[in-house]
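[09:14] KT: can someone run the structure on this one? pasting the chain below
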Amino acid sequence: MAGVNKCLKYSMFIFNFLFWICGCVILGISIWLRVSSDAQQKFNIQGTGVLAGVDVMIAVGSIIMVLGFFGCCGAMKESRCLLLLFFIGLFLILALQITAGVLGVVYKPQLEEQVNKTLVGLIPLNNQPLDLQKALEQLQEENKCCGIIQGIQDWGTAGSSSCRCTKLSDPDTCGAQYYNQTCFSVLVDYFKKHLLIIIGIAFGLAVVELFGLGFSMTLYCQIGKK
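[09:31] RB: done, structure tokens below
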């Protein structure tokens, strides 16, 4: 009977160890986005949909860590059961990632329209919960913008102190009394940038996972012939 190729065995172990590290990185970044004050500020304005996406990434990172552990143990112990579990789990993740990447490319042009619909529903801003108003005030102050669609008018009769500026301190961004730029473009740019990152990660990992599927199935077959 043919023995298991040692080079393949240890290559599989190294691959899964790196795969496990990738899961740790995804999980760590996702948790950071969940608790980061800067991200929370923009997520609170956009609504719960983005936070749900971050929660999905936390789940994906956790699953990748578990699969990496299965792959490492399956390679070192030459366990066909663990290798098969790794193969099935990795295949399902690959299918989901490709689907998410394709949907991201297809719906990217519609992002601005969807963000616009969501944000218009927040007007007048002074009727929104206090935590959302505080997040908007901070966003305006940091990015030197005012309101969402129509500027200071979005705040109703109450106005907003963070919209106020002077020509002396901000000659390029200040109008008569308030910032010229609305925060709509700031939010759209933020989400477009992060969407590109997500698409890149999805397709980049897909290539790596194809190698993992090949390694695991080859080793699985060799153990069966042993």
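[09:33] KT: thanks! The longest helix spans residues 184-225.
[09:34] RB: yep, looked fine to me
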